[in-house]
């Protein structure tokens, strides 16, 4: 999804009408659920064997994901005749606001698709449902161990992961080769910021009166937090907190990354209007040849590019206007200041919520059944193949054997390298600290970054603002000083 993937496939997100946000009610075996569809947020699910409704708030996780909602509901009911899965669609743009509205009203959905990074926020609000004692051993053993760890806070499990991918960047193969960039070497060995900066300078070309940039990254809308988060991981700050739980973004390395953000705009490699580029515009610029490299890049973009290429070949008018054929190349984010590469890992999934009252054991078990249904087997295999994402359950891998997928082997190998550098899960970060860090990001970092991108403030001014806010939040002894 936050994470997160929270922006995954936002280029195709649909703004759909949605059902009421009214408070969730109890089904009590009744055939007509409450307006919001939740039979559970009140914690008064039906006794064992009686009817129960599980609600799920789901964004367009993959290009065709929301097209399958009716089929998902039907198959779940066939598997569990006494249970109803009621899915409420949301666009990526309104997902967070819609979920927070329901959470603040004390009537969240039973399941919401969000990034694992958002778990701490809702744990701190007391609105997540710990399913540690409700998942079965067979469910747990189906998952790869590492992605499952991302769904934990402390020793508690708050949902089931859908996939584990990396936030990368992506290039136009033809343009990269025209600029003399050995993209296969970069895929396997990575590159420093200095090497990357020289490469994107070479990618700036004017042809037939049209300018092509070396690099464009989506920085507006739901993508506003991605750019800086991804860069700083490769500058010795893999997490907002160090291993001894000091806030990391007061490091001098943070300032150097902020300087780099301005450098790439000031030297013309990136557009001066970068602060207004959202995910949709970023992808449009890439498909229409207005940039050599784009970001944030995910595996699904290779699939999206292939589909647009097919539309161009078919000359059916449904391709992106003025688009060109593109061979999408997965590329790593550059590393800074001699620091080792650390891939920004996106583990999004089906997070389990509760209402104001304690849910019954029976209802918890039903919610877990629904979450597992969505995160495994045929549903997960179909979704992850659509995303070009790796399967993280044995059941999805088995289901995927009968499905065809056309993926560039060089890109598969590149993602494997990046996954070997993936940031580790940090369930040790206390929920109050994690929540404060998210608040600082929302209230200080994102607004200041927008001002920096618009050249309204200097890197030093943003750094000092972040540092002051961090000291206020965590104390003089709770932040990095180097």
UniProtKB/TrEMBL annotation:
Residues 25-57 are annotated as: Disordered. Residues 25-48 have a biased composition (Low complexity). GO terms for cellular component: cell envelope. It holds the Pfam family SBP_bac_1. It comes from the Bacteria. It is found in: Cell envelope. Its main location: other. InterPro entries: Bact_solute-bd_prot1, SBP. The keyword Transport applies. Keywords: Signal, Transport. The keyword Transport applies. Residues 1-22 form the signal peptide. PANTHER family: ARABINOSE-BINDING PROTEIN-RELATED (PTHR43649), SN-GLYCEROL-3-PHOSPHATE-BINDING PERIPLASMIC PROTEIN UGPB (PTHR43649:SF31). Belongs to the bacterial solute-binding protein 1 family. This is Extracellular solute-binding protein.
């Amino acid at each position: 999804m936050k994470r997160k993937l929270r922006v995954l496939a936002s280029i195709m997100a649909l703004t759909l009408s949605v059902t009421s946000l009214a408070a969730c009610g109890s089904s009590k075996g009744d055939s007509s659920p409450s307006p919001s569809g939740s039979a559970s947020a009140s914690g008064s699910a039906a006794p064992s064997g009686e009817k129960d409704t599980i609600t799920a708030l789901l964004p367009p996780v993959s290009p065709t994901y929301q097209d399958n909602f009716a089929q998902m509901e039907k198959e779940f009911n066939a598997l569990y005749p006494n249970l109803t899965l009621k899915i409420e669609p949301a666009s990526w743009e309104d997902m967070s606001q819609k979920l927070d509205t329901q959470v603040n009203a004390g009537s969240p959905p039973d399941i919401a698709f969000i990034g694992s990074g958002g778990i701490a926020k809702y744990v701190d609000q007391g609105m997540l449902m710990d399913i540690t004692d409700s998942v079965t051993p067979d469910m747990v053993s189906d998952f790869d161990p590492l992605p499952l760890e991302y769904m934990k806070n402390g020793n508690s499990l708050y949902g089931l992961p859908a996939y584990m991918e990396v936030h990368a960047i992506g290039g136009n193969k033809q343009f990269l080769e025209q600029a003399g960039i050995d993209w296969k070497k970069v895929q396997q060995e990575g590159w420093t910021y200095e090497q990357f900066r020289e490469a994107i300078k070479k990618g700036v070309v004017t042809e037939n009166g049209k300018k092509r940039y070396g690099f464009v990254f989506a920085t507006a809308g739901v993508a506003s937090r991605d750019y800086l988060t991804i860069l700083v991981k490769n500058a010795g700050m893999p997490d907002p907190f160090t291993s001894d739980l000091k806030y990391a973004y007061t490091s001098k390395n943070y300032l150097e990354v902020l300087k780099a953000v301005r450098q790439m705009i000031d030297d013309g490699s990136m557009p001066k209007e970068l602060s207004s580029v959202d995910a949709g515009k970023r992808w449009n610029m890439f498909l229409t040849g207005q940039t050599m490299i784009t970001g944030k890049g995910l595996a699904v973009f290779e699939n999206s590019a292939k589909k647009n290429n097919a539309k161009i070949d078919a000359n059916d008018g449904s391709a992106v206007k003025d688009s060109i054929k593109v061979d999408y190349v997965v590329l790593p984010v550059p590393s800074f200041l001699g620091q080792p590469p650390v891939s920004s890992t996106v583990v999004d999934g089906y997070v389990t919520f509760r209402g104001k009252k304690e849910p019954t054991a029976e209802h918890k078990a039903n919610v877990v059944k629904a979450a597992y249904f969505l995160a495994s087997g045929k549903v997960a295999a179909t979704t992850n193949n659509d995303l070009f994402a790796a399967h993280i359950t044995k059941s999805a891998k088995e289901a995927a054997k009968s499905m065809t997928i056309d993926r560039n082997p060089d890109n598969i190998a590149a993602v494997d390298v990046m996954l070997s550098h993936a940031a580790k899960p940090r369930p040790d970060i206390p929920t109050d600290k994690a929540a404060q860090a998210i608040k600082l990001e929302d209230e200080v970092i994102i607004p200041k970054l927008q001002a920096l991108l618009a050249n309204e403030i200097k890197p030093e001014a943003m750094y000092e603002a972040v540092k002051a806010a961090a000291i206020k939040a965590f104390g003089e002894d709770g932040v990095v000083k180097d």
